[in-house]
């Protein structure tokens, strides 16, 4: 450990491994360390034995679950948008070659206690039972506007400046009723609360457009894909990429600690009496006490089922969004379903995850609207996680710290955080339009 590195990265969560891969491709010399003996950190996938050790220590594994090696439980369950940032990063870096994916069967939204397929384009709008006949045509007009919109072609703007007009004003232009606005904002644009309504409409419109494009990319009933064997495959894929470009990995380093120089700037990491030097240190919030603050909490239920989630067409994989207004809450609730078809559980079993931002002193009770959608539950485990974020941007102290994982069941905010960190460290953007990272490594935008 007496070498000097461009960066030392602490933690092997998806964000840290993704960033390590991007920096390694960029020619940076990387040392990657984790206190755990496995990859994934907070975003790991645990087998059945590890799950019981975490939630029910000392309790024997039920024999009816079969081999513990056949199970992979995502601690931060999320799907990937087919045309979203994570897929673009996977293609840009070549990591997609290390993984296998399946398209997710369905995308649904809850209205009035009932589950409906999410309409994502003009054709879906006319078929949807979410809306009455006249509302269908109004929604169809809105979807056509979004599908046709091109930022650099004023002919597609219909006179709207999306950097000026708010989402609320744009919806009003199309005469959409509150229920339609609700599913567009939360199930298509994937906004986590209603603050987007009074912000410029561009972000919302581009998010709906991304949803529609992702749906078209795989020609399935949802815009999402999911890796076989669970999300734990993703950090390992990016770790493998970093290793190909010369990155060094050290797991099971429980005493890894950031070292600071006299000016208070991070200059390396110590472990087992040795110190590795680096120009800057990167990591998840747990390695930087005193440099992060809690901005909220997320509660997640991990559920084992012996049947598909009801009312979603016997789907093996599904996302269901419960918009905040449907439960009288301040934030949305997310239901994520997968099954033995994804090699994450024993044959004939299904996994469901319910997650939301914590708003009360009884987080488990907050999950009831999502749990009620699942039918009979064999067993479930509840985890409350703090969502942390750095108190500064790293430019002063050389500590570049990722944000915690939110309740959403998609990866857009996760990758946005990594790309922001990459830009703070390197001073440039990742060129995701370049498919060959070796050819573009080190190039400025």
TrEMBL record:
InterPro entries with a match to the protein in the record: FAD/NAD-bd_sf, GDP_dissociation_inhibitor, RabGDI
Homology family: Belongs to the Rab GDI family.
GO cellular component: cytoplasm
Listed SUPFAM superfamilies: FAD-linked reductases, C-terminal domain, FAD/NAD(P)-binding domain
A GO term, aspect molecular function: Rab GDP-dissociation inhibitor activity
Gene Ontology BP, a term: protein transport
Superkingdom per UniProt: Eukaryota
Protein name, entry field: Guanosine nucleotide diphosphate dissociation inhibitor
